[in-house]
Protein backbone atom coordinates (compact mmCIF):
# COMPACT_ATOMS: atom_id res chain seq x y z
CA UNK A 1 0.00 0.00 0.00
CA UNK A 2 1.42 3.36 -0.97
CA UNK A 3 1.91 6.09 1.64
CA UNK A 4 -0.71 8.17 -0.16
CA UNK A 5 -3.31 5.43 0.24
CA UNK A 6 -2.37 4.48 3.79
CA UNK A 7 -5.19 5.08 6.22
CA UNK A 8 -4.40 7.80 8.72
CA UNK A 9 -4.72 6.51 12.29
CA UNK A 10 -7.46 8.13 14.34
CA UNK A 11 -6.41 11.06 16.49
CA UNK A 12 -6.03 10.68 20.23
CA UNK A 13 -8.84 13.19 20.74
CA UNK A 14 -11.21 11.11 18.58
CA UNK A 15 -10.40 7.87 20.38
CA UNK A 16 -10.77 9.58 23.76
CA UNK A 17 -14.09 11.12 22.73
CA UNK A 18 -15.54 7.78 21.59
CA UNK A 19 -14.39 5.95 24.73
CA UNK A 20 -15.70 8.66 27.06
CA UNK A 21 -19.03 8.70 25.23
CA UNK A 22 -19.44 4.94 25.60
CA UNK A 23 -18.50 5.10 29.27
CA UNK A 24 -21.05 7.81 29.99
CA UNK A 25 -23.76 6.34 27.74
CA UNK A 26 -23.44 2.76 29.02
CA UNK A 27 -23.50 3.86 32.65
CA UNK A 28 -26.39 6.26 32.04
CA UNK A 29 -28.38 3.51 30.31
CA UNK A 30 -28.04 1.12 33.24
CA UNK A 31 -28.76 3.73 35.91
CA UNK A 32 -31.71 5.28 34.03
CA UNK A 33 -33.17 1.83 33.39
CA UNK A 34 -32.88 0.94 37.07
CA UNK A 35 -34.39 4.31 38.05
CA UNK A 36 -37.50 3.63 35.95
CA UNK A 37 -37.78 -0.08 36.73
CA UNK A 38 -37.86 0.73 40.45
CA UNK A 39 -41.12 2.62 39.90
CA UNK A 40 -42.99 0.62 37.26
CA UNK A 41 -44.38 -2.88 36.88
CA UNK A 42 -44.37 -2.60 33.09
CA UNK A 43 -40.77 -3.36 32.02
CA UNK A 44 -41.84 -4.57 28.57
CA UNK A 45 -43.77 -1.38 27.86
CA UNK A 46 -40.72 0.58 29.00
CA UNK A 47 -38.60 -1.35 26.50
CA UNK A 48 -41.20 -0.73 23.78
CA UNK A 49 -41.09 3.01 24.46
CA UNK A 50 -37.29 3.05 24.19
CA UNK A 51 -37.39 1.25 20.86
CA UNK A 52 -40.08 3.58 19.47
CA UNK A 53 -38.02 6.64 20.41
CA UNK A 54 -35.00 5.15 18.64
CA UNK A 55 -37.11 4.42 15.54
CA UNK A 56 -38.46 7.99 15.47
CA UNK A 57 -34.92 9.38 15.72
CA UNK A 58 -33.83 7.11 12.87
CA UNK A 59 -36.66 8.46 10.68
CA UNK A 60 -35.85 12.07 11.54
CA UNK A 61 -32.15 11.50 10.79
CA UNK A 62 -33.03 9.86 7.49
CA UNK A 63 -35.27 12.78 6.49
CA UNK A 64 -32.43 15.18 7.31
CA UNK A 65 -30.06 12.94 5.30
CA UNK A 66 -27.46 12.72 8.05
CA UNK A 67 -27.11 8.92 7.88
CA UNK A 68 -24.60 7.21 5.56
CA UNK A 69 -27.28 4.73 4.36
CA UNK A 70 -30.84 5.59 3.33
CA UNK A 71 -33.48 3.75 5.34
CA UNK A 72 -36.07 1.58 3.66
CA UNK A 73 -38.48 -1.24 4.46
CA UNK A 74 -38.26 -4.53 2.56
CA UNK A 75 -40.48 -7.52 3.39
CA UNK A 76 -37.84 -10.04 2.32
CA UNK A 77 -35.29 -8.44 4.64
CA UNK A 78 -37.83 -8.55 7.46
CA UNK A 79 -38.29 -12.28 6.91
CA UNK A 80 -34.54 -12.83 6.90
CA UNK A 81 -34.16 -11.03 10.22
CA UNK A 82 -36.76 -13.07 12.12
CA UNK A 83 -34.16 -15.02 14.19
CA UNK A 84 -32.26 -11.84 14.98
CA UNK A 85 -35.37 -9.92 16.04
CA UNK A 86 -36.64 -12.82 18.15
CA UNK A 87 -33.36 -13.06 20.03
CA UNK A 88 -33.22 -9.30 20.42
CA UNK A 89 -36.69 -9.07 21.96
CA UNK A 90 -36.12 -11.98 24.35
CA UNK A 91 -32.64 -10.80 25.29
CA UNK A 92 -33.65 -7.19 25.96
CA UNK A 93 -36.78 -8.24 27.86
CA UNK A 94 -34.88 -10.62 30.12
CA UNK A 95 -32.14 -8.04 30.59
CA UNK A 96 -34.73 -5.50 31.80
CA UNK A 97 -36.27 -8.09 34.13
CA UNK A 98 -32.79 -8.84 35.50
CA UNK A 99 -32.20 -5.19 36.29
CA UNK A 100 -35.65 -4.92 37.87
CA UNK A 101 -35.05 -7.74 40.34
CA UNK A 102 -31.38 -7.20 41.25
CA UNK A 103 -29.37 -4.21 42.45
CA UNK A 104 -27.65 -2.02 39.87
CA UNK A 105 -24.30 -2.97 41.41
CA UNK A 106 -25.15 -6.70 41.12
CA UNK A 107 -26.33 -6.49 37.51
CA UNK A 108 -22.89 -7.24 36.11
CA UNK A 109 -22.60 -10.30 38.35
CA UNK A 110 -26.07 -11.60 37.39
CA UNK A 111 -25.08 -11.36 33.74
CA UNK A 112 -21.55 -12.56 34.36
CA UNK A 113 -21.82 -15.74 32.29
CA UNK A 114 -22.07 -13.96 28.92
CA UNK A 115 -18.42 -14.68 28.10
CA UNK A 116 -18.43 -18.44 28.91
CA UNK A 117 -21.74 -18.86 27.07
CA UNK A 118 -20.33 -17.05 24.04
CA UNK A 119 -17.29 -19.31 23.89
CA UNK A 120 -19.53 -22.40 24.14
CA UNK A 121 -21.93 -21.05 21.50
CA UNK A 122 -19.06 -20.31 19.11
CA UNK A 123 -17.76 -23.85 19.59
CA UNK A 124 -21.15 -25.44 18.92
CA UNK A 125 -22.42 -23.17 16.12
CA UNK A 126 -19.18 -22.08 14.44
CA UNK A 127 -17.01 -25.12 15.18
CA UNK A 128 -14.53 -22.70 16.75
CA UNK A 129 -12.29 -24.53 19.21
CA UNK A 130 -11.02 -22.13 21.91
CA UNK A 131 -7.44 -22.19 23.16
CA UNK A 132 -6.56 -23.26 26.69
CA UNK A 133 -5.98 -19.64 27.67
CA UNK A 134 -9.47 -18.74 26.48
CA UNK A 135 -10.93 -21.59 28.53
CA UNK A 136 -8.91 -20.39 31.51
CA UNK A 137 -10.35 -16.88 31.16
CA UNK A 138 -13.86 -18.37 31.04
CA UNK A 139 -13.05 -20.34 34.19
CA UNK A 140 -12.06 -17.11 35.95
CA UNK A 141 -15.30 -15.40 34.92
CA UNK A 142 -17.41 -18.40 35.98
CA UNK A 143 -15.67 -18.47 39.37
CA UNK A 144 -16.48 -14.79 39.81
CA UNK A 145 -20.14 -15.43 39.01
CA UNK A 146 -20.52 -18.19 41.61
CA UNK A 147 -18.68 -16.15 44.24
CA UNK A 148 -21.20 -13.36 43.67
CA UNK A 149 -24.18 -15.70 43.87
CA UNK A 150 -23.16 -17.75 46.92
CA UNK A 151 -20.92 -15.38 48.91
CA UNK A 152 -22.64 -12.03 48.41
CA UNK A 153 -23.84 -11.85 51.99
CA UNK A 154 -27.10 -10.04 51.19
CA UNK A 155 -30.52 -11.43 50.19
CA UNK A 156 -30.55 -12.01 46.43
CA UNK A 157 -33.47 -12.49 44.07
CA UNK A 158 -33.33 -15.96 42.54
CA UNK A 159 -35.74 -14.69 39.87
CA UNK A 160 -33.30 -11.91 38.99
CA UNK A 161 -30.39 -14.36 38.82
CA UNK A 162 -32.45 -16.67 36.60
CA UNK A 163 -33.26 -13.83 34.20
CA UNK A 164 -29.59 -12.82 34.25
CA UNK A 165 -28.37 -16.29 33.31
CA UNK A 166 -30.95 -16.73 30.54
CA UNK A 167 -30.30 -13.25 29.10
CA UNK A 168 -26.57 -14.06 29.14
CA UNK A 169 -27.20 -17.17 27.07
CA UNK A 170 -29.36 -15.19 24.64
CA UNK A 171 -26.60 -12.58 24.29
CA UNK A 172 -24.14 -15.34 23.44
CA UNK A 173 -26.36 -16.73 20.68
CA UNK A 174 -27.08 -13.17 19.53
CA UNK A 175 -23.37 -12.50 18.99
CA UNK A 176 -23.22 -15.42 16.55
CA UNK A 177 -26.51 -14.76 14.73
CA UNK A 178 -25.65 -11.10 14.13
CA UNK A 179 -23.03 -12.10 11.55
CA UNK A 180 -25.62 -13.97 9.50
CA UNK A 181 -28.07 -11.08 9.88
CA UNK A 182 -25.56 -8.57 8.52
CA UNK A 183 -25.46 -10.51 5.25
CA UNK A 184 -29.24 -10.00 4.94
CA UNK A 185 -28.77 -6.20 4.87
CA UNK A 186 -25.66 -6.33 2.64
CA UNK A 187 -23.33 -5.77 5.56
CA UNK A 188 -24.87 -2.46 6.65
CA UNK A 189 -24.76 -2.25 10.45
CA UNK A 190 -26.90 0.88 10.28
CA UNK A 191 -29.71 -0.83 8.36
CA UNK A 192 -29.51 -3.79 10.72
CA UNK A 193 -29.98 -1.40 13.63
CA UNK A 194 -32.96 0.26 11.91
CA UNK A 195 -34.73 -3.00 11.12
CA UNK A 196 -34.01 -4.53 14.52
CA UNK A 197 -35.38 -1.55 16.45
CA UNK A 198 -38.48 -1.25 14.25
CA UNK A 199 -39.37 -4.95 14.12
CA UNK A 200 -38.62 -5.49 17.82
CA UNK A 201 -41.04 -2.70 18.72
CA UNK A 202 -43.78 -4.26 16.58
CA UNK A 203 -43.22 -7.74 18.04
CA UNK A 204 -43.41 -6.38 21.58
CA UNK A 205 -46.98 -5.04 21.17
CA UNK A 206 -48.80 -8.41 21.47
CA UNK A 207 -46.28 -9.61 24.05
CA UNK A 208 -47.10 -6.64 26.28
CA UNK A 209 -50.79 -7.56 26.12
CA UNK A 210 -50.14 -11.24 26.78
CA UNK A 211 -47.86 -10.38 29.72
CA UNK A 212 -50.75 -8.53 31.37
CA UNK A 213 -49.10 -5.12 31.46
CA UNK A 214 -52.14 -3.24 30.11
CA UNK A 215 -53.55 -2.70 33.61
CA UNK A 216 -50.22 -1.32 34.81
CA UNK A 217 -49.98 0.95 31.76
CA UNK A 218 -53.48 2.28 32.46
CA UNK A 219 -52.55 2.94 36.08
CA UNK A 220 -49.35 4.66 34.98
CA UNK A 221 -51.08 7.14 32.68
CA UNK A 222 -54.05 7.70 35.01
CA UNK A 223 -51.75 8.97 37.73
CA UNK A 224 -52.89 6.45 40.33
CA UNK A 225 -49.63 6.88 42.26
CA UNK A 226 -50.39 10.53 43.06
CA UNK A 227 -52.12 9.50 46.30
CA UNK A 228 -48.95 7.83 47.59
CA UNK A 229 -46.35 10.27 46.27
CA UNK A 230 -44.51 12.35 48.82
CA UNK A 231 -43.84 16.06 48.38
CA UNK A 232 -40.95 16.72 46.02
CA UNK A 233 -40.96 13.19 44.63
CA UNK A 234 -41.32 12.79 40.86
CA UNK A 235 -44.44 10.92 39.76
CA UNK A 236 -44.19 7.44 38.29
CA UNK A 237 -45.30 8.82 34.91
CA UNK A 238 -42.69 11.58 35.04
CA UNK A 239 -39.98 9.08 35.90
CA UNK A 240 -41.15 6.78 33.11
CA UNK A 241 -41.22 9.53 30.48
CA UNK A 242 -37.83 11.02 31.39
CA UNK A 243 -36.23 7.59 31.71
CA UNK A 244 -37.62 6.53 28.33
CA UNK A 245 -36.38 9.69 26.62
CA UNK A 246 -32.90 9.46 28.15
CA UNK A 247 -32.39 5.78 27.35
CA UNK A 248 -34.08 6.00 23.95
CA UNK A 249 -31.87 8.88 22.82
CA UNK A 250 -28.75 7.27 24.25
CA UNK A 251 -29.58 3.97 22.56
CA UNK A 252 -29.93 5.72 19.21
CA UNK A 253 -26.71 7.69 19.69
CA UNK A 254 -24.84 4.51 20.61
CA UNK A 255 -26.08 2.85 17.43
CA UNK A 256 -24.59 5.70 15.40
CA UNK A 257 -21.40 5.96 17.42
CA UNK A 258 -20.80 2.21 17.18
CA UNK A 259 -20.07 2.64 13.48
CA UNK A 260 -17.25 4.98 14.46
CA UNK A 261 -16.16 2.90 17.44
CA UNK A 262 -15.40 -0.11 15.24
CA UNK A 263 -12.87 1.99 13.35
CA UNK A 264 -11.13 3.87 16.17
CA UNK A 265 -11.05 1.59 19.23
CA UNK A 266 -8.82 -1.38 19.95
CA UNK A 267 -8.96 -4.45 22.24
CA UNK A 268 -6.68 -2.67 24.70
CA UNK A 269 -9.11 0.25 24.79
CA UNK A 270 -11.97 -2.15 25.55
CA UNK A 271 -9.89 -3.67 28.36
CA UNK A 272 -9.49 -0.31 30.05
CA UNK A 273 -13.03 0.95 29.44
CA UNK A 274 -14.64 -2.30 30.64
CA UNK A 275 -12.75 -2.13 33.92
CA UNK A 276 -13.71 1.50 34.45
CA UNK A 277 -17.37 0.80 33.61
CA UNK A 278 -17.54 -2.13 36.00
CA UNK A 279 -16.14 -0.18 38.94
CA UNK A 280 -18.14 2.96 38.13
CA UNK A 281 -21.41 1.01 37.88
CA UNK A 282 -20.87 -0.42 41.36
CA UNK A 283 -20.03 2.98 42.84
CA UNK A 284 -23.01 4.66 41.19
CA UNK A 285 -25.32 1.86 42.32
CA UNK A 286 -24.15 2.36 45.89
CA UNK A 287 -24.50 6.15 45.64
CA UNK A 288 -27.79 6.48 43.71
CA UNK A 289 -29.71 3.44 44.93
CA UNK A 290 -27.96 2.81 48.26
CA UNK A 291 -26.79 -0.64 47.18
CA UNK A 292 -24.76 -2.59 49.71
CA UNK A 293 -21.37 -3.59 48.29
CA UNK A 294 -20.27 -6.57 50.39
CA UNK A 295 -16.79 -8.05 50.21
CA UNK A 296 -18.26 -11.03 48.32
CA UNK A 297 -19.90 -8.80 45.71
CA UNK A 298 -16.78 -6.66 45.31
CA UNK A 299 -14.64 -9.78 44.90
CA UNK A 300 -17.09 -11.21 42.37
CA UNK A 301 -17.08 -8.06 40.24
CA UNK A 302 -13.29 -7.84 40.39
CA UNK A 303 -12.82 -11.49 39.35
CA UNK A 304 -15.34 -11.21 36.48
CA UNK A 305 -13.60 -8.07 35.23
CA UNK A 306 -10.20 -9.75 35.57
CA UNK A 307 -11.35 -12.76 33.53
CA UNK A 308 -12.97 -10.53 30.88
CA UNK A 309 -9.87 -8.36 30.56
CA UNK A 310 -7.63 -11.43 30.35
CA UNK A 311 -9.90 -12.85 27.61
CA UNK A 312 -9.65 -9.63 25.60
CA UNK A 313 -5.87 -9.56 25.97
CA UNK A 314 -5.56 -13.23 24.90
CA UNK A 315 -7.74 -12.65 21.82
CA UNK A 316 -5.65 -9.59 20.94
CA UNK A 317 -2.42 -11.57 21.27
CA UNK A 318 -3.83 -14.50 19.27
CA UNK A 319 -5.03 -12.18 16.50
CA UNK A 320 -1.53 -10.67 16.24
CA UNK A 321 0.28 -14.01 16.33
CA UNK A 322 1.74 -15.20 13.00
CA UNK A 323 1.39 -18.82 14.12
CA UNK A 324 -1.53 -20.89 12.83
CA UNK A 325 -4.57 -20.82 15.10
CA UNK A 326 -5.52 -24.00 16.92
CA UNK A 327 -9.17 -23.21 16.44
CA UNK A 328 -11.34 -25.41 14.32
CA UNK A 329 -13.09 -22.34 12.89
CA UNK A 330 -13.05 -18.58 12.84
CA UNK A 331 -13.19 -17.40 16.42
CA UNK A 332 -14.48 -13.88 16.88
CA UNK A 333 -13.66 -11.48 19.67
CA UNK A 334 -16.61 -10.60 21.86
CA UNK A 335 -16.92 -6.85 22.34
CA UNK A 336 -16.81 -5.90 26.00
CA UNK A 337 -19.93 -3.74 25.80
CA UNK A 338 -21.82 -6.91 24.85
CA UNK A 339 -20.46 -8.63 27.97
CA UNK A 340 -21.79 -5.87 30.18
CA UNK A 341 -24.93 -4.62 28.45
CA UNK A 342 -26.50 -7.63 26.80
CA UNK A 343 -27.92 -7.53 23.32
CA UNK A 344 -27.61 -3.92 22.35
CA UNK A 345 -30.72 -1.96 21.55
CA UNK A 346 -28.89 -0.78 18.50
CA UNK A 347 -27.87 -4.32 17.52
CA UNK A 348 -25.23 -2.82 15.29
CA UNK A 349 -22.00 -4.13 16.72
CA UNK A 350 -20.39 -5.74 13.74
CA UNK A 351 -18.28 -8.81 14.57
CA UNK A 352 -14.61 -8.19 14.07
TrEMBL record:
Membrane topology note: Multi-pass membrane protein
Membrane-crossing segments per the record: 12-32, 44-64, 76-94, 106-126, 133-151, 157-177, 189-211, 240-262
Positions of the UniProt region annotated as Disordered: 320-352
Ranges of biased composition (kind: Polar residues): 343-352
Alphabetical keyword list: Membrane, Transmembrane, Transmembrane helix
Keyword Transmembrane helix: yes
Subcellular location: Membrane
Residue ranges annotated for the Sugar phosphate transporter domain, each copy included: 19-311
Protein name: Sugar phosphate transporter domain-containing protein
Organism (species): Lentinula boryana
Taxonomic placement: Eukaryota, Fungi, Dikarya, Basidiomycota, Agaricomycotina
